[in-house]
User: What shape does this take?
Amino acid sequence: MPDHGEPRRLLIVANRLPFSVTVADGALVVGESPGGVASGLKSYLDALPRFRPAMKEYHWVGWPGGTVGEEFLGDLAAAAGRYHASPVTLSASAMEEFYQGFCNRTIWPLFHYFPTLATFDESTWGEYRRVNEMYCDAVLRSLRPGDVVWVHDYHLMLLPGMLRRHRPDLTVGFFLHIPFPDFEVFRLLPNAWRKEILEGMLGADLVSFHTYAYTQYFLQCVLRLLGFENNFGAIVLPGRLVKAETYPMGIDFERFDRASADPAVRAEAETLARTLAGVRVILSVDRLDYTKGILNRLRGYELLLEESPPVRGAVVLVMVLVPSRIGVEQYADMKKSIEEFVGRINGKFGSVGWTPILYQYRSLSFEPLAALYTVSDVALVTPLRDGMNLVAKEYVASRHEGTGVLIISEMAGAAKELGEALVVNPYSPEEIARALKEALEMPLPEQQRRNGVLRNRLRRFDVARWANEFLDQLLVQKEAQARFATMVLPSRDRACILDTYARAARRLVLLDYDGTLAPIVRRPAEAKPTPRLMSLLARLAGDPATTLVILSGRDRLTLDHWLGVLPCGLAAEHGAWIRDAHQEWRLLREQRSEWKARILPILERYMDRLPGANIEDKEYSLAWHFRGAHPEQADALAGELVDHLMSVTANIDVQVLRGKKVIEVRNAGVDKGVAALHWLAPDTYDFILAAGDDWTDEDMFAALPESAFTIRVGLLSSRARFNLGDSSDVLHLLDDLSGAAHAAPPVPAPNS
Assistant: This one.
């Protein structure tokens, strides 16, 4: 395994610590934390030095599972020390608003596709933010140099972004253990909330999910709501590179595989076998939750008993319901409905010697759970929606002889890995009933064939491999970010540019406008120069030693209106029109426009097909903009439009060019490189700087001498020598250039 120069400690941040506390008889009682991230990672962390020799320590940050009074804080600190943990103490009211409120009444139902059950309360959202800030403070207090921070699950989606703001160089990974919904569901969140959640998750260097679909839904939301595209999951943010990836969580396979040999498990299994002698056992183990599809499962079992009389008396459904969110009225009503349904089936089909359903409402420790796995002929796992579902994997791992049949919902993340199981639609009782009949009739060799494949897969991709691959990718991603950062103008080269500028007698500064001097905006008219930009350009252009030129794809009327008061050169329509400082506009070469009458109707037809697209009709060019349109639809239609235009213009002296959310048609031989030569040719300069953000600026970079300081805005490959992150970085550089020359002329105001 590659070392990647690993740090020495893993800092795990989750809603719950690996231990929980209660107060009984005036004393603090400490116990193991039930379920969740803690139990999933326990075996991996216990053997961390073996899996990652350079990472010998781990530390937890999380809530201890209960409200702790001041008189018990010393006992809590002692317990935390034993568990390598830093507790985040929350009041009962905070947990009500944060956990029971926003986490479980908003995010949980929405992300599991139950939007009608979701509530959208500003007060719970405010508490969610506040608790994430408390976790951020706790992490910052716990940090050591070189720590790797791994944030878990939906309770802490804002935390990575908060940590990034405090510690820009921190290594942070984030894993979501529940489904990430598609765009149409996620967008039900209020606009400000959904953007803040995405930005919070993007504070991590690596964002990971259980399934490919969840990853794609996340990337789709980032594109649609924040405007950031991705390349195979790599998202280029201003100044940073983030990766979204898929890592399905595994289990401690060996523990469950060996469980039947454990004396306590064996004794429990023998007791169960005696109790259940003479019947086939169908097992259902789930937490009490509306996402688990328990009522649909019971309907499927009822249908099996109705349609297959021979199974009556020959099977039993062992249903274990694990308590969850006790005290919440909705869950109490659900429990009542389930128990009434169980009673109805038992009353309808049962007899003195046979009870169709053996129902228990209790938590299970490892030994009785493993015993149930070993004696059950069928495992029925049919959630309506589930991020992963480890019960399905645990059942297969426990069947060391390869017998038993797993029935799993296609809506569970685990179904993507467990294709050899019987996969059903959990909303269809008929499918569940048919799968139960097939499972009960499946020959042993077929059971062993299927389980052999499943067990080998689960053995190979266990929880240790899941965690190792995530951490490996996180560290690889950090290395990629370091390489990415080298693309940005280094401080030494920046100093060289400033020094050369200050010493130069004749300077030429060539600047693109949109994306370089002003950020790209949804509506082009909103990119009007700010007073700060006008002041900066006036200082540069007002220096007699500097020739400032702004080269843009915009029309000359807009450039005149916005920038005409400045003593600088202007090039419109990518150089079709040029204007020296305070001179009249003129064509750089003869242009033709009669072709527009043929092309414009084509662009209009495609605009009508794509809501949000618009056409910019300039004197000698046409531009079809689609920044405001649905991104995926726009990309597909833009490709079709380019093909159409290329065929139509094959015998016309025009060029079709695709840029950032725009397709341009213009006269051949017109580009910013030709325009730049207009200012370059008549004079000799000892300093030349050019900056641009688009493919249209590559012609300008290519036309300049090798000694020129060329800068591509955005961290993409380019002919330019250097890169800057975004337009704000360009303005900072120009500010420094202006200061280096000690020039400060009066500042004209833009036209209103």
Residues 743-750 have pLDDT under 50 and may be disordered. The radius of gyration is 32 Å.
